[in-house]
Write a structure and sequence with these properties.
about 100 residues; mainly alpha; two-stranded antiparallel ribbon
Length: about 100
Amino acid sequence: MAEPGIDRLLFLTDSKYRLTVVTAKRAQQLLRYEFKNTVLEPQEQPRMHTLEGDKPDPNPVTWAMKELLTGRLKIGENLLPEDRLTRLLDQMYPREASESAD
C-alpha cells in the first residue's frame, strides 16, 4: 500500500489485517460494478500521470483506499450482510446480460 495516509487508514480498523480485507473487498466491489458505485466525487477520483497526459487510475485498491480516507464508507459490525449488499448493488448497477451467463 503505497498510498499516502496509511496511518490514517490504520486508525479506521483494529489491525492491518482487517484493513487489508476491507480494502480488498471494496476493490472487488468497485471492479465488479466498473467503478459506478464509487463514493468519490469526480475531482477526488485518483488520477495517474502518463506520457499521454492525466488519466483515471485503473487500480481499484487505490480507489478503495481513497474512499476509506473520505470517511463516507462504514467499517465495522452491524452492517448489511454481504449477500444482501450484493443484491442491492446488482439492482442499482445492473451488469450486461453476457456477464450474468458466465
